Amino acid sequence: MNGTIQDISTPSGGEWPSDWLRATLGLFALRALEAGPSYGYAIIADLEQHGLGTIKGGTLYPLLTRYETAGLVITEWRPGDGGPGRKYFALTGHGRSELERLRNEWALFTQTSNSYLGADRLGKENNA
Q: Phi-psi category of 82—alpha, beta or left, where left has phi over 0 and alpha has psi -120 to 50?
């Protein structure tokens, strides 16, 4: 998608734990579609460019199909440039609302998680 990538940090092994990616892929896929319609490979490339790891099509496409069934995305086939057509995915109004809801919940979850993991917690446990 659009934007400049600056100083992306990744774990020492270069990839995030797969269970973290499975848990967040839905939110990230909706976010990737926020700027406008896109197709699977472009979504995968966008996530990778933003430091979120390599996602396999066999993981992303079933998720997008579930989102289509749930009314979060709509699809459209577009002819390819000298090749096969591509299936484009776009957020619906319901998909945009769900993205915003998940984004807000994610912010609360990360704040809570960071607080729990933070150094200030260590002192509280030692005094208990």
A: left
